[in-house]
Amino acid sequence: QTNDILLSVRDLNVFYGGIQALHGISLDIRQGEIISIIGANGAGKSTLLKTIAGDKEIGSGSIEFDGRPLPGRIHQFSQQGICLVPEGRKIFVNLTVLENLQVGAYAQKSKAVIAQRVEEVFDLFPRLKERAKQMSGTLSGGEQQMLAVGRALMAAPKLMMLDEPSLGLAPIIIDEMFEKFRQINKMHGTTMLIVEQNAQLALETADTGYILNLGKIQLKGPGSELLDDPYIQEAYLGFK
Ligand code: ATP
Protein backbone atom coordinates (compact mmCIF):
# COMPACT_ATOMS: atom_id res chain seq x y z
CA GLN A 1 0.00 0.00 0.00
CA THR A 2 1.42 3.38 -0.95
CA ASN A 3 -1.02 5.72 0.77
CA ASP A 4 0.56 5.30 4.20
CA ILE A 5 3.90 6.61 2.92
CA LEU A 6 4.50 9.99 4.55
CA LEU A 7 7.83 10.87 2.98
CA SER A 8 9.22 9.60 -0.27
CA VAL A 9 12.69 10.56 -1.49
CA ARG A 10 13.66 9.60 -5.06
CA ASP A 11 17.12 9.69 -6.66
CA LEU A 12 18.13 12.72 -4.63
CA ASN A 13 21.37 14.45 -5.57
CA VAL A 14 22.53 17.46 -3.55
CA PHE A 15 25.59 19.63 -4.10
CA TYR A 16 27.69 22.25 -2.33
CA GLY A 17 29.13 24.08 -5.29
CA GLY A 18 31.13 21.44 -7.17
CA ILE A 19 31.04 18.94 -4.30
CA GLN A 20 28.33 16.31 -4.37
CA ALA A 21 27.14 15.50 -0.82
CA LEU A 22 24.24 13.15 -1.67
CA HIS A 23 24.33 10.59 -4.49
CA GLY A 24 21.01 9.19 -5.67
CA ILE A 25 19.34 8.77 -2.28
CA SER A 26 15.95 7.03 -2.30
CA LEU A 27 13.94 6.23 0.79
CA ASP A 28 10.35 5.81 1.90
CA ILE A 29 9.09 6.55 5.38
CA ARG A 30 5.73 5.23 6.49
CA GLN A 31 3.34 7.17 8.64
CA GLY A 32 4.16 6.63 12.34
CA GLU A 33 7.50 4.96 11.72
CA ILE A 34 10.75 5.69 13.58
CA ILE A 35 13.69 5.78 11.18
CA SER A 36 17.34 6.07 12.19
CA ILE A 37 20.14 7.05 9.87
CA ILE A 38 23.64 6.28 11.01
CA GLY A 39 26.93 7.00 9.30
CA ALA A 40 30.38 8.45 9.83
CA ASN A 41 31.20 12.17 9.87
CA GLY A 42 30.69 13.69 6.46
CA ALA A 43 28.41 10.88 5.24
CA GLY A 44 25.75 13.45 4.32
CA LYS A 45 23.30 12.92 7.20
CA SER A 46 22.82 16.59 8.05
CA THR A 47 22.57 17.48 4.38
CA LEU A 48 19.75 14.97 3.92
CA LEU A 49 17.77 16.39 6.85
CA LYS A 50 18.34 19.99 5.74
CA THR A 51 17.17 19.18 2.24
CA ILE A 52 13.98 17.52 3.50
CA ALA A 53 13.38 20.51 5.81
CA GLY A 54 13.72 22.93 2.89
CA ASP A 55 16.93 24.50 4.22
CA LYS A 56 19.07 23.17 1.38
CA GLU A 57 18.28 23.11 -2.30
CA ILE A 58 17.57 19.89 -4.20
CA GLY A 59 20.12 19.37 -6.98
CA SER A 60 18.08 16.75 -8.81
CA GLY A 61 15.54 14.10 -7.87
CA SER A 62 12.39 14.62 -5.86
CA ILE A 63 10.94 14.64 -2.38
CA GLU A 64 7.27 14.00 -1.79
CA PHE A 65 5.74 14.72 1.61
CA ASP A 66 2.19 13.79 2.54
CA GLY A 67 1.35 13.22 -1.11
CA ARG A 68 2.69 16.55 -2.38
CA PRO A 69 6.04 17.28 -4.04
CA LEU A 70 8.28 19.63 -2.08
CA PRO A 71 9.61 22.55 -4.06
CA GLY A 72 13.30 22.39 -4.87
CA ARG A 73 14.11 25.88 -3.72
CA ILE A 74 15.07 26.93 -0.22
CA HIS A 75 12.33 28.11 2.13
CA GLN A 76 12.39 30.76 4.74
CA PHE A 77 10.40 28.61 7.16
CA SER A 78 10.42 24.88 7.50
CA GLN A 79 8.02 22.98 5.32
CA GLN A 80 4.62 22.71 6.83
CA GLY A 81 4.26 19.52 8.84
CA ILE A 82 8.01 18.97 9.01
CA CYS A 83 10.16 20.07 11.93
CA LEU A 84 13.93 19.76 12.17
CA VAL A 85 15.66 19.82 15.54
CA PRO A 86 19.09 20.83 14.26
CA GLU A 87 22.48 19.70 15.48
CA GLY A 88 23.50 21.98 18.35
CA ARG A 89 19.83 22.70 19.16
CA LYS A 90 19.76 26.38 18.07
CA ILE A 91 17.34 27.57 20.72
CA PHE A 92 16.98 31.31 21.32
CA VAL A 93 19.30 31.83 24.27
CA ASN A 94 17.95 35.30 25.10
CA LEU A 95 14.35 34.13 25.34
CA THR A 96 12.84 32.28 28.27
CA VAL A 97 11.87 28.64 28.06
CA LEU A 98 8.21 29.55 27.65
CA GLU A 99 8.97 32.14 24.96
CA ASN A 100 11.01 29.58 22.99
CA LEU A 101 8.06 27.21 23.07
CA GLN A 102 5.69 29.94 21.92
CA VAL A 103 7.98 30.77 18.99
CA GLY A 104 7.73 27.11 17.95
CA ALA A 105 4.00 27.58 17.41
CA TYR A 106 4.41 30.63 15.14
CA ALA A 107 1.99 29.28 12.55
CA GLN A 108 -0.75 28.65 15.12
CA LYS A 109 -3.17 31.53 15.68
CA SER A 110 -5.28 30.10 18.51
CA LYS A 111 -3.96 31.07 21.95
CA ALA A 112 -5.93 28.19 23.48
CA VAL A 113 -4.23 25.66 21.19
CA ILE A 114 -0.82 27.15 21.98
CA ALA A 115 -1.50 26.98 25.73
CA GLN A 116 -2.66 23.39 25.36
CA ARG A 117 0.51 22.42 23.50
CA VAL A 118 2.68 24.14 26.12
CA GLU A 119 0.98 21.99 28.77
CA GLU A 120 1.65 18.85 26.70
CA VAL A 121 5.34 19.76 26.43
CA PHE A 122 5.48 20.46 30.17
CA ASP A 123 3.87 17.06 30.86
CA LEU A 124 6.52 15.38 28.72
CA PHE A 125 9.39 17.42 30.21
CA PRO A 126 8.46 18.54 33.76
CA ARG A 127 11.94 20.07 34.06
CA LEU A 128 10.96 22.67 31.48
CA LYS A 129 7.88 23.59 33.46
CA GLU A 130 9.99 24.29 36.55
CA ARG A 131 12.18 26.52 34.41
CA ALA A 132 9.50 28.21 32.29
CA LYS A 133 10.68 31.73 33.11
CA GLN A 134 14.40 30.99 33.01
CA MET A 135 16.57 32.39 30.20
CA SER A 136 17.23 29.50 27.86
CA GLY A 137 20.95 30.22 27.54
CA THR A 138 21.38 29.31 31.22
CA LEU A 139 19.87 25.82 30.82
CA SER A 140 22.06 22.72 30.98
CA GLY A 141 22.84 20.92 27.72
CA GLY A 142 20.23 18.25 28.44
CA GLU A 143 17.60 20.85 29.27
CA GLN A 144 18.39 22.74 26.07
CA GLN A 145 17.89 19.54 24.09
CA MET A 146 14.53 19.02 25.83
CA LEU A 147 13.62 22.59 24.91
CA ALA A 148 14.62 22.10 21.28
CA VAL A 149 12.45 18.97 21.10
CA GLY A 150 9.61 20.75 22.93
CA ARG A 151 9.79 23.70 20.58
CA ALA A 152 9.51 21.38 17.58
CA LEU A 153 6.49 19.69 19.15
CA MET A 154 4.77 23.07 19.45
CA ALA A 155 4.30 23.02 15.67
CA ALA A 156 2.54 19.62 15.95
CA PRO A 157 4.64 18.21 13.10
CA LYS A 158 3.74 15.08 11.17
CA LEU A 159 7.43 14.43 10.67
CA MET A 160 9.97 15.29 13.34
CA MET A 161 13.62 15.12 12.34
CA LEU A 162 16.42 15.10 14.91
CA ASP A 163 20.04 15.77 13.96
CA GLU A 164 22.39 14.06 16.45
CA PRO A 165 20.20 14.55 19.52
CA SER A 166 22.72 12.77 21.78
CA LEU A 167 25.58 15.16 20.98
CA GLY A 168 27.34 16.33 24.14
CA LEU A 169 24.87 14.72 26.53
CA ALA A 170 25.62 12.38 29.44
CA PRO A 171 24.69 8.70 28.79
CA ILE A 172 21.83 8.70 31.30
CA ILE A 173 20.30 11.81 29.69
CA ILE A 174 20.68 10.25 26.24
CA ASP A 175 18.72 7.17 27.33
CA GLU A 176 16.00 9.40 28.77
CA MET A 177 15.87 11.45 25.59
CA PHE A 178 15.39 8.39 23.37
CA GLU A 179 12.70 7.14 25.73
CA LYS A 180 10.91 10.48 25.21
CA PHE A 181 11.17 10.04 21.43
CA ARG A 182 9.39 6.69 21.72
CA GLN A 183 6.79 8.34 23.95
CA ILE A 184 6.17 11.17 21.44
CA ASN A 185 5.87 8.62 18.66
CA LYS A 186 3.33 6.58 20.64
CA MET A 187 1.28 9.48 22.00
CA HIS A 188 1.01 11.60 18.87
CA GLY A 189 1.79 9.09 16.14
CA THR A 190 4.57 11.44 15.08
CA THR A 191 6.83 10.00 12.40
CA MET A 192 10.46 10.40 13.49
CA LEU A 193 13.64 10.59 11.46
CA ILE A 194 16.69 10.44 13.71
CA VAL A 195 20.27 10.96 12.60
CA GLU A 196 22.74 9.61 15.15
CA GLN A 197 26.37 8.81 15.85
CA ASN A 198 25.22 6.63 18.76
CA ALA A 199 24.44 3.70 16.46
CA GLN A 200 23.48 1.22 19.16
CA LEU A 201 20.73 3.36 20.65
CA ALA A 202 19.59 4.68 17.28
CA LEU A 203 19.11 1.17 15.87
CA GLU A 204 17.48 -0.12 19.06
CA THR A 205 14.92 2.67 18.79
CA ALA A 206 14.29 2.46 15.06
CA ASP A 207 11.71 0.44 13.16
CA THR A 208 13.94 0.85 10.12
CA GLY A 209 17.61 1.83 10.01
CA TYR A 210 19.67 3.21 7.13
CA ILE A 211 23.44 3.27 6.85
CA LEU A 212 24.66 6.29 4.94
CA ASN A 213 28.19 6.18 3.60
CA LEU A 214 29.84 8.84 1.39
CA GLY A 215 26.46 10.24 0.38
CA LYS A 216 24.94 6.86 -0.57
CA ILE A 217 22.64 4.44 1.21
CA GLN A 218 24.78 1.42 1.84
CA LEU A 219 22.35 -0.73 3.84
CA LYS A 220 18.78 -0.64 4.99
CA GLY A 221 16.78 -2.91 7.25
CA PRO A 222 14.83 -3.36 10.47
CA GLY A 223 16.80 -1.81 13.35
CA SER A 224 17.05 -5.15 15.16
CA GLU A 225 18.45 -6.87 12.05
CA LEU A 226 21.10 -4.22 11.49
CA LEU A 227 22.17 -4.59 15.13
CA ASP A 228 22.87 -8.29 14.44
CA ASP A 229 24.73 -7.64 11.18
CA PRO A 230 28.46 -8.51 11.62
CA TYR A 231 29.56 -5.77 9.20
CA ILE A 232 27.61 -3.12 11.13
CA GLN A 233 28.84 -4.48 14.43
CA GLU A 234 32.41 -4.04 13.32
CA ALA A 235 32.10 -0.77 11.41
CA TYR A 236 29.58 1.12 13.56
CA LEU A 237 29.15 -0.62 16.90
CA GLY A 238 32.79 -1.10 17.84
CA PHE A 239 32.68 -4.92 17.94
CA LYS A 240 35.88 -6.78 17.08
P1 ATP B 1 28.60 15.09 10.58
O1 ATP B 1 28.22 13.91 11.37
O2 ATP B 1 30.08 15.39 10.65
O3 ATP B 1 27.74 16.30 10.78
P2 ATP B 1 27.15 14.48 8.16
O4 ATP B 1 26.96 13.04 7.84
O5 ATP B 1 26.02 15.21 8.76
O6 ATP B 1 28.44 14.65 9.04
P3 ATP B 1 27.13 16.55 6.16
O7 ATP B 1 27.31 17.65 7.14
O8 ATP B 1 25.82 16.37 5.53
O9 ATP B 1 27.60 15.17 6.80
O10 ATP B 1 28.23 16.73 5.03
C1 ATP B 1 28.29 15.94 3.86
C2 ATP B 1 29.40 16.46 2.93
O11 ATP B 1 29.06 17.77 2.45
C3 ATP B 1 30.74 16.61 3.61
O12 ATP B 1 31.73 16.21 2.71
C4 ATP B 1 30.85 18.08 3.91
O13 ATP B 1 32.18 18.51 3.90
C5 ATP B 1 30.06 18.70 2.78
N1 ATP B 1 29.42 19.97 3.22
C6 ATP B 1 28.50 20.10 4.20
N2 ATP B 1 28.13 21.40 4.34
C7 ATP B 1 28.84 22.09 3.42
C8 ATP B 1 28.92 23.47 3.05
N3 ATP B 1 28.16 24.39 3.65
N4 ATP B 1 29.77 23.81 2.07
C9 ATP B 1 30.53 22.89 1.44
N5 ATP B 1 30.50 21.57 1.72
C10 ATP B 1 29.67 21.18 2.70
Please describe what this structure looks like.
The protein has 240 residues and is α/β, with parallel strands linked by helices. The chain is 35% helix and 27% strand. The protein contains nine helices and ten strands. The strands form two sheets. The protein has a six-stranded mixed beta sheet, sandwiched between helices. Strands 2-1-4-5 form a four-stranded antiparallel beta sheet, covered by helices on one side. β1 and β2 form a beta hairpin. α2 runs parallel beside α5. The protein starts with a strand and ends in a 5-residue tail after the last helix. Adenosine-5'-triphosphate (ATP) binds next to β2 and α1.
Please sum up the structure shown.
This protein is about 35% helix and about 25% strand. By secondary structure, the chain is of the alpha/beta class. Strand 1 and strand 2 (about 20-30) form a beta hairpin.
